[in-house]
Design a protein that fits this description.
The complex is a heterodimer of chains A (about 300) and B (about 325). Chain A is about 75% helix and about 5% strand. Chain A has ten helices and four strands; from the N terminus they run H-H-H-H-H-E-E-E-E-H-H-H-H-H. Chain B folds into three domains: about 120 residues, no CATH class; about 80 residues; about 90 residues, no CATH class. The longest helix of chain B is centred in the C-terminal third of the chain and has 25 residues. Classes of the chains: A mainly alpha (about 300), B mainly alpha (about 325). The interface between A and B is medium-sized, with 34 and 25 residues. Chain A: Keywords: Coiled coil. Chain B: InterPro entries: DUF6620. Chain B: Pfam families: DUF6620 (PF20325).
């Protein structure tokens, strides 16, 4: 007991170099705090701007939006790189230096590893925040495609009876939303007319998939949740496995084992079930897609078959 | 490279021991080893060593892979198609490296040359096309090469109506071509259409009907274009600059056109050309060198763009 007491007392006398580690750690924390603040300030200012630009960008391809969007992400990456470079230069290098100087057997070695752990935990926090803002910015791209689709449908309703034959002037019914220029022959004089869809209607083929995905997102989420369960169950089981190491009570051990078996059973189930849910989602999404652009159905079905091979 | 470092650890040290016998210095050892690498003669088509037959090779791989698969199954493992493919893939690498006593670069070149055979996927620079591939049937009489030539003209900035006129068909036909060819690219799981399109694009193909349609290019632009085609470093510099431009909210393709007079079609064509070249002459050291160079240049241009825009937002945060 006394020996233990002495030892603890001895450890309290911290080596001189510890102050350098402390200082680096403090600086690192303050530095990241400032970067966090910058990032938040920048992102919260950029997000409404981006939404505004997307709304007011009349360009079909939203080129202005994409330029600004890419610039915003560039700044965010710049902050991230700054953190990474500083981490390597000011934290890891210091750590490597002391780690090579201080033997792992030394009673002070934990100061070195704690330094690294504290700094890297803080760094991970920063990375998580970066990911958070990045996702928030990504979301500004989302547009309600239902609105765009409705506009196309309204336009079609308005024009479908207003196309006349260039030869005889007879009215030609536009039977569906054409995605590209198409020859239509006149029912009266058989002259071949070229029907050119509007820019907006042409764009339907580019938004159709997005719209179908938007409509079936709940099924995608069900699949995702199931798919993620595999790792969760694996880790849960692994934790239980570790807890057995210091357990000697047979009864407790048996209980743990049966829990583990149960988890493994669940895990095997999700491994089989996740692809099924994926397929349910894909089928629903393609069905929806085919409803929106029946002309692409033949092509889409081939794509669907190809995708099934990789589930 | 892997073998030079770890050859003795992976158990294939027989040839190395033979080398050691007459060695006096490390330098000699290195030279000898490299010479020995070159002693293996490769079939120019399959890149297999000529001292064995392809059949023997495939059999050896199958034998080892099946033994491993049987073993795994015997110990209760549930192997999926994907796992089996991986097992074959790994043994192919092992047997090839062993039988040819080669480095990993040579092994990757071999994989590229045989990607269609072994993984069902084409690799740019090694495209193999069988007759009667339905994906390559002409559309309205227009084959993939001609379609690519048209795409090149249009992305170089020539109005598609002009291109149609030169080809002698109505825009309706172009729209169908431009729907069906991309659809085929999507449907073709071997990527033959896509890879071949890329290869034609890299070659900057043209057809007689389109030869008189030339995108405007300044004298300086023409000189720069020639330079990125022949000077890989200059190409990497502009690729880095373009990337940096996007990160500063600038349209990179337009920026290249404004500052170097090279349009996006020509730039992409050269990019494909270098990619194909890189696949054919796979050399990891060179690849690293060029990739580092591009990153370095990207940083330089990023600093320039940042300065023009009054700095980056976190410039005032210091450690």
């Amino acid at each position: 007991m006394f020996g233990l007491f002495n030892k603890q007392k001895g450890e309290e006398a911290l080596p001189e170099w510890y102050s350098e580690l402390q200082e680096s750690q403090e600086r690192w924390f303050i530095f990241l705090e400032k970067l966090d603040a910058k990032m938040e300030e920048f992102a919260t200012a950029a997000i409404p701007e981006l939404k505004e630009i997307l709304q007011s960008d009349d360009d079909l391809y939203k080129r202005t939006f994409h330029r600004v969007y890419s610039g915003v992400n560039g700044q965010l990456s710049n902050i991230r790189e700054k953190a990474r470079d500083t981490y390597e230069e000011k934290i890891l290098n210091v750590y490597y230096h002391y780690n090579s100087q201080i033997s792992v057997l030394s009673k002070h070695h934990n100061l070195v590893s704690d330094f690294r752990n504290n700094c890297s935990d803080r760094y991970n926090d920063f990375e998580n925040r970066y990911e958070y803002w990045r996702t928030q910015i990504e979301k500004t791209q989302e547009r309600d495609l239902e609105i765009e689709y409705q506009k196309i449908l309204d336009e079609y309703e308005a024009i479908k009876n207003k196309f006349n034959c260039t030869q005889c002037g007879g009215n030609i019914q536009i039977e569906k939303i054409f995605l590209i220029e198409t020859y239509i022959s006149c029912p009266y004089c058989k002259t071949q007319n070229t029907f050119a869809p509007s820019t907006q209607a042409r764009n339907l083929q580019h938004i159709a998939r997005g719209l179908a995905e938007q409509r079936t997102v709940h099924l995608y989420e069900e699949f995702e949740t199931e798919n993620n369960k595999e790792r969760e169950l694996y880790h849960e089981r692994h934790e239980l496995g570790l807890s057995k190491i210091h357990e000697s009570d047979k009864k407790v051990l048996n209980e743990i084992q049966s829990k583990m078996d149960d988890l493994e059973q669940q895990r095997q189930f999700v491994i089989k079930n996740a692809p099924k849910l994926h397929q349910i989602y894909l089928r629903a999404m393609y069905d929806e897609w085919n409803k929106i652009t029946p002309d692409l159905k033949e092509h889409n079905e081939k794509m669907y078959q190809n995708q099934l091979q990789h589930l | 490279m892997f073998k030079k470092l770890f050859g003795s650890l992976t158990g294939d040290n027989k040839t190395e021991n033979q080398n050691h016998e007459a060695q006096t210095s490390n330098d000699n050892f290195k030279n000898d080893y490299e010479n020995e690498d070159q002693e293996v003669e490769y079939d120019p088509e399959t890149l297999h060593g000529t001292h064995y037959s392809v059949e023997d090779f495939d059999n050896e791989v199958a034998e080892r892979a099946e033994a491993w698969i049987a073993d795994e199954r015997a110990s209760g493992e549930n192997l999926e198609d994907k796992d089996i493919q991986n097992i074959y893939f790994n043994y192919r690498r092992a047997v090839y490296t062993e039988w040819n006593n080669c480095d990993s670069d040579q092994m990757i070149r071999f994989e590229h040359a045989n990607s269609l055979k072994y993984s069902g996927i084409q690799t740019s620079g090694f495209v193999k096309v069988e007759d009667n591939n339905p994906f390559l049937e002409p559309v309205h009489g227009v084959d993939l090469r001609t379609y690519t030539a048209m795409c090149l003209k249009i992305s170089a900035g020539i109005d598609y109506l002009e291109v149609c006129k030169a080809m002698g068909f109505e825009p309706v036909i172009w729209e169908e071509l431009n729907t069906i060819w991309p659809q085929r690219m999507g449907e073709d799981t071997s990527f033959t259409v896509t890879t071949l399109f890329g290869q034609y694009y890299a070659e900057n193909v043209t057809v007689p009907q389109l030869e008189n349609l030339k995108a405007e290019i300044s004298e300086e632009g023409a000189a720069n274009l020639e330079k990125i085609r022949t000077d890989r470093y200059f190409y990497e510099e502009l690729a880095g600059a373009r990337q940096a431009a996007y990160e500063y909210g600038i349209d990179g393709a337009q920026w290249i056109l404004d500052n170097f007079g090279i349009n996006i079609a020509d730039f992409q064509s050269v990019a494909m050309q270098w990619m194909t070249e890189q696949n054919q002459n796979w050399n990891s050291e060179n690849i690293m060198e060029f990739s580092n160079y591009q990153q370095e240049k990207q940083k330089e241009y990023a600093a320039k763009f940042a300065a023009e825009q009054g700095g980056n937002i976190a410039d005032d945060v210091n450690f």
